[in-house]
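Run log, item B.
One chain of 349 residues. Sequence copied directly from the ordering sheet:
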Amino acid sequence: MTKITPENPDIYKNILAVVLAGGKGSRLRPLTASIAKPALPFGGSFRLVDFVLSNLINSGIDSIYLLAQYKPESLIKHITANWQLAPNGHVRFVRVVLPRREHGGGFRGTADAVYQNLDLIERHAPNMVAVFAADHIYRMDVRQMVDFHRECNADVTVAMTQVPIEKASSFGIIATGYMGEILDFQEKPDLPIAIPSSPEYAYASMGNYLFNTDVLVEGLEHVLRCGETDFGTHTLPRLIQSHHVHAYDFSRNSVPGTQPYEEQAYWRDVGTLEAYVAAHQDISGSLPRFNLQNPHWPILPTIFAKQPASFGTSHVQYKRDLFDLHPSMLCSSGNLSPAESEALQIGTA
């Protein structure tokens, strides 16, 4: 099997990335009242979308479409100002794509969003398509997932991580076989399947998928015929029955520069206010669970990057559904529009 290494870059250069950035982030209101969830400030200088984009760029995957829908202005502004990779923008690019009028002017779900842009995939003719979520906090060397995908001769690979069983109903839950093949995929089940060897945990989808291009195109055409709209609810459970679908264990991913004191394979879904604040606490202090300052795997863009404020002594307090969270703790003031700053001023004491 051909390995993906810095000496062998062409394999992952022919991967097209499609980042799903259209969610409303309803559980993060009022922070998302006027800001798209992926554009929400994080850690002093960054936006949530910067983490997935950094992982892709650092992995050598630099042809990226961002599919946006809800309040896209803040996301477009951020990408335009900070993510212009090359002057011509034809080979190396990060480009925001909005729903099209001919499809009704909106995305009905994750699979429908990608289907509406099938022509972009066919135009690039990649060997593989990475469909990734836009709003999680983590570092990941995507090349290692691609290696796994190729070694397994998989048609589809889903990145998975362990989550506590009591929280598993908020995720797509995976049951795997001995070789990592996915036996069952349940989207946000009431009774999630536990890991047999660790019943206090379940395997959750990270919302990151690798597709062989022909399999993705076939699956998206089925979306049109059957009225399906969502990868987790419709597409993946069906593909498990007909194709080689494998799960990549994120705990195996090794990122250079990770410190011994950090939580290994750190990944957080910051879909709620409580999780959003907790993730900020994880980056605080002298020995953070997740260190934003890693020169070997930088969070980009670095033009505004600065050390985030420490939350160990800051007035960050969960009380009912409000947080005493000042915008200066979340994002440098020069990166916030007046509307964004107003949206972040919640529960101030």
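Observations after the first pass:
- The chain is about 25% helix and 20% strand.
- The domain at 13-252 is CATH 3.90.550.10 (Spore Coat Polysaccharide Biosynthesis Protein SpsA; Chain A).
Flagged for discussion on Thursday.
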